[in-house]
Design goal:
The structure holds two protein chains of two kinds. Chain A is an all-alpha fold. Chain A is built from seven helices and one strand. Chain A has one domain. Chain B starts with a helix and ends with a strand. Classes of the chains: A mainly alpha, B mainly beta.
Chain lengths: 158, 396
């Protein structure tokens, strides 16, 4: 490989995002007998890893709590925050951390309470988007009202 | 008013559709109320639609006459300060390999109204749109009412308001400043709003409007617009609203070649797709070239990036090349190749090919066929789909 190609490769190559150690970190953190049963699919949809694939309910919740690829400190902090907030990504009534410690999936409603897959535990999940005026009329009117002083000042000019 | 139309009709070139470059029209402001194109036509634009766009087997006989179709509803001459018109687009989507093989699409039923008081312009659109859980984005983000809850099924018809803005023309009409809900200035304003370049950048003129402040500039050599985005207040709660900017600038290399740059950065507390805090980037190039009066090439390529507060989340792209050939005036044959990648773990890009024909059979009437071949790539598998889209489009 010539020098130009090497330089191009270095400039254009994406950073490596592999977080291979994360399942082991979770195992050690909670003194589990084995790694979480879902392994990479705990966070990555359909076992596909890489940029933009951390989209399972648990993975998204972890990202909301500061999860960063390859950063074990961020993973630990995210898990701690989720434990404090009692995050329940699959909405089955059992918190994510409790499910990890019990060896069940925090993505699939395997706990004993509530319904499956609803999400919304821990008070961190937003309601789904709504379309229509709803609560939006007030901010929209405020936006236009904020323009009125501009129009007034324009009129005052000779 | 008729005298004004006559003078303007034969004194300056006209530009409306992106492919109007074939007729040496680069700027959109002469024919459209929106200075960056699409949507309601000005009276001059309505006349040009009859002169340059409609199907003709023979040249116009009365070159001096302003076409009657320049009037509202083809006959009603309105006072100069008032511009009324509408846009009706109905489609049938045929998907031979899908479970639901026939999908009727009420794409647009908008009424347009524009008031001109000297340099001040007020513009609003209103209409109805359909809403379903299958195609939540169909008219949802443009809906005023009723409120729809996807978990409770389809809400059928919604009241839709895509645009409403107040503007002022300055500097001999070269500059237009606007505030309100409007199209995002970005890339080609092509009518195929589901193409990857429009869908992945969220800049299509079917549902992509946002509230904000904008300034547009139009001259012979340069046109552009920059918009500060305050959010789409027809989407709630507030966490889902994107705020930032969108802009483009297009330079005229010659009367038949234009090169443009676009840029967009928005931030939302919760991205509509992922629900995560996200900064969204789209930056790209676009071009319009007309080697002959019968042929135009349009192209756009956009780099996409999504960023969470912690890190770069994913990278993607969207690109399109379209060739537009006038078989004769009013009869267009179009070929489009497109690609897109959302950076969500797909092994390769989604690819598409469109073979289309548009027939402007009467003034302000279009019948269009799109054969759409798409290879949709996802993290698990790539699927191939063929769709036939038949559209009737009336722009009153």
């Amino acid at each position: 490989m010539d020098r130009t190609s090497l330089l191009l490769l270095l400039v254009l190559a994406l950073p490596a995002w592999a977080s291979d150690t994360f399942p082991a970190v979770i195992q050690n953190k909670y003194s589990l007998a084995s790694q979480p049963p879902e392994s990479c699919a705990l966070c990555h949809t359909n076992f596909v890893t890489g940029l933009g694939t951390v989209n399972t309910p648990f993975g998204k919740a972890a990202r909301l709590h500061g999860l960063v690829a390859t950063n074990t400190a961020a993973l630990n902090a995210a898990l701690d925050a989720m434990a404090t907030e009692l995050t329940d990504s699959d909405g089955d009534g059992v918190t994510d951390v409790a499910e990890l410690m019990a060896g069940t999936s925090p993505n699939q409603g395997s706990g004993t309470g509530g319904g499956a897959g609803g999400g919304g535990g821990g008070g961190t999940v937003l309601p789904p988007p709504r379309y229509g005026c709803g609560a939006s009329v007030v901010p929209e009117l405020l936006f236009f009202a904020s323009l009125l002083p501009l129009l007034r000042s324009r009129r005052r000019r000779p | 008013m008729r005298w004004f139309l006559l003078v303007s009709l034969f004194s300056a070139p006209a530009w409306a559709f992106p492919w109007m470059v074939k007729h040496s029209y680069g700027s959109c402001a002469a024919c459209h109320v929106d200075p960056s194109g699409s949507g309601q036509l000005t009276p001059y634009g309505r006349a040009q639609a009859d002169v340059l766009v409609r199907w003709r087997t023979q040249p116009r006989k009365d070159e001096e006459e302003v076409p009657a179709s320049a009037n509202f509803l083809w006959f009603l001459e309105l006072p100069e300060f008032l511009n009324l018109s509408g846009n009706f687009r109905y489609g049938s989507l045929i998907r031979p390999a899908a479970a639901v093989k026939f999908v009727p699409l009420l794409m647009a039923t908008d009424l347009y109204a524009t008031l001109n008081f000297g340099p001040i312009v007020a513009h609003a659109t209103t209409g109805v749109g359909t809403y379903s859980t299958r195609a939540i984005a169909y008219s949802g983000p443009a809906a005023i009412a009723p409120l729809c809850d996807p978990s409770k099924g389809a809400c059928s018809v919604q009241w839709v308001a895509r645009e409403f803005w107040l503007g002022a023309k300055l500097a001999d009409e070269a500059v237009m400043v606007r505030a309100g809900r409007m199209n995002l200035p970005f890339g080609l304003r092509n009518s195929e709003h589901t193409t990857f370049v429009r869908a992945l950048t969220r800049t299509d003129f079917n549902i992509g409007q946002q509230v904000g402040l904008s300034a547009a500039y139009n001259s012979e050599a340069l046109r552009g617009e920059v918009m500060g985005i305050a959010g789409n207040f027809q989407v709630g709660p507030d966490a889902y609203r994107e705020r930032g900017y969108s802009a483009f600038a297009e330079y005229s290399i010659s009367h038949s070649a234009y090169l443009g740059l676009s840029s967009l950065i928005t931030s939302a507390v919760a991205d509509l797709s992922t629900g995560l805090p996200m900064v969204r980037h789209a930056h790209g190039l676009f071009a319009r070239i007309a080697p002959t009066e019968k042929f135009a090439l349009l192209g756009e390529a956009d780099f996409l990036a999504w960023q969470t507060p912690q890190q770069l989340d994913r990278l993607g792209f969207a690109a399109l090349v379209q060739a537009d050939l006038d078989l004769m005036q009013g009869l267009h044959l179009m070929g489009t190749i497109e690609g897109g990648h959302t950076g969500s773990g797909e092994p390769g890009p989604s690819l598409g090919g469109w073979l289309s024909a548009a027939w402007y059979f009467l003034p302000h009437c279009e019948l269009r066929l799109d054969n759409i071949f798409r290879r949709n790539s996802s993290a698990t598998a790539a699927t191939f789909e063929y769709q036939l889209l038949i559209q009737l489009h009336l722009f009153l």
